[in-house]
Fold:
Amino acid sequence: MKSLQVGQAQQDYGSHTDGSDKVSDKSILFPNKFIAIADSFKGEHSWFIAPQIPTDFSIQVQETTYNVHKYPLISKCGYIGQLEIQPLISNSGNVLKLENFPGGSETFETILKFCYGLPIDFSPDNIAALRCASEFLEMTEELEDGNLISKSEAFLTFVVLSSWKDTITVLKSCENLSPWAENLQIVRRCCDSIAWKASKDELTSEDATPNQESWWFNDVAAFRIDHFMQIISAIRAKGTKPETIGKCIIQYAKRWLPGMEVELEGLRGYGHEKCNLQFSIFSGKKKESSGHSKEQKTIIESLISIIPPQQDAVSCKFMLQMLKMAMMYSVSPALTTDLEKRVSLVLEDAEVSDLLIPRYQNGDQGKTVISMTISSEECTMLDIDVVQRIVEYFLMHEQQQIQQQQKTRKFNISRLLDNYLAEIARDPNLSITKFQVFAEFLPENTRSYDDGLYRAIDTYLKTHASLTEHDRKRLCKIMNCEKLSLDACLHAAQNERLPLRTVVQILFSEQVKMRAAMHEKEPAQIGIQSEQEGNHTSATMDIKALKAELENVKSQMVELQNDYCELQQEYEKLSNKPKNSSGWSLNWRKIKNSLHTKPAGVEIGDRQDAPKSPNTILRRLNPRRRLSMS
Structure:
């Protein structure tokens, strides 16, 4: 670093007024007739005072040396007044080295202007650094009224924190001001201001756009993880919904964990050399440095710890993605176990692709391309133990709900696990014992049908074609032949990979089911026949009754015809007598009318004893039978 004496600086200042290319100078006339000259020597910096009064000592901040006067600084900076001046080895004067100065040389130059009485501009970009630097230099009100601490604090409180954009800018600048920004509560106050504005925005926009992503997610996701956690804690304290907090966490993870959404592409190829298996997991990312891996691990552990406890706060897919990242970067076992339990509570929302978690070996964290040669009995490509623990937690939770007589969820996990079994069955490194243990992990009454289990077993037999007959029989004993559908039975009957005994059992069980189905139909047919016979019997009885009534009516008609013949004979006898012909004519007319007319009723008087026609007599004898006949 190049340092110049005051006289040399004055000489240089005079010589540079002609526009030299080597040094660009700026001169300022102070109220006390001090002249400030800032020189830049090709990356090496010196800051000089070229006044009428010689400078007292030099101050070094980072790579820049400032030749200044003692009095303007001591009058406003209590820290400088308390220190002893350290002599320079170069015998060029006295120098004070300010190690870890907040804001660096740029902030110190602004403070020098303030000490020399020049006006300075406060902005969201420099206010946090000025506030920390003034605290570092102890620029309090005890030394001078209106010192830099009070002015910067007032601007920060009344101007910055009232604006969302300015607050974001200040909090972002605090990332390079640790631990001063935390100790002065600048970070906490910014986080509280952001949380208050975010929670207020949620309340005002809840009715208008409930499904729209909040506008502040991207701004909050830009912060460092420790500041983000403070914001989330402050937002949670304001009573923000867990779903909103979960969405914000997901947005942050997408930004800072780019490898989280990379799906497992599977096996690109198998290399079988004796008992070894070679495989690679491809994701398209570059190899990461150890420092970046440590940062990623810190982010993962922090995000897992701040996920809201509510089940609907984040999706099951996101938690399984975080679990993959946790396995990759070897986060603490306690956080991993907690995340596995969280996943088990929402396992009904999981998909098979989400459960395909690669198995990472020690030293693989941070590497997205994993290539290793493993003995076929040591390790599988997928981490099956993690999924098995998740299922175990799920079953334990279901059992607790049953014991506590709580309402259980209507979700059958068998279909999900059978599809997962079919996926892991393609791994030639999967032992038959591990496959059998996982397949028998569920209770027997969990599966309504064993079609999915049969498909997984058939996939395993296809991949492991070298299994012995004993192992094939052992594997097929897992499924219940009576729970196979007709399509599965038809496929099994033609499957050459199955043992002959298993095929016979499947055909026999299907025959038993067909017989049972036929027996169930027979009682129904008998009932239909009995009902039809009952209806036929009642119709026959009605026909017989009608026939009997018809015979009775016929007999009555015969009697009426006989009566009519007798009356005709009597009429003929009477008509042969000449006397009282008029009276007999009248009587005959009445009888004839009674025989050939259909009166509605019988008149009182002379018609009471008149003979009735056959039809009238028939209606009087049996009116109901006449109606039934019609």
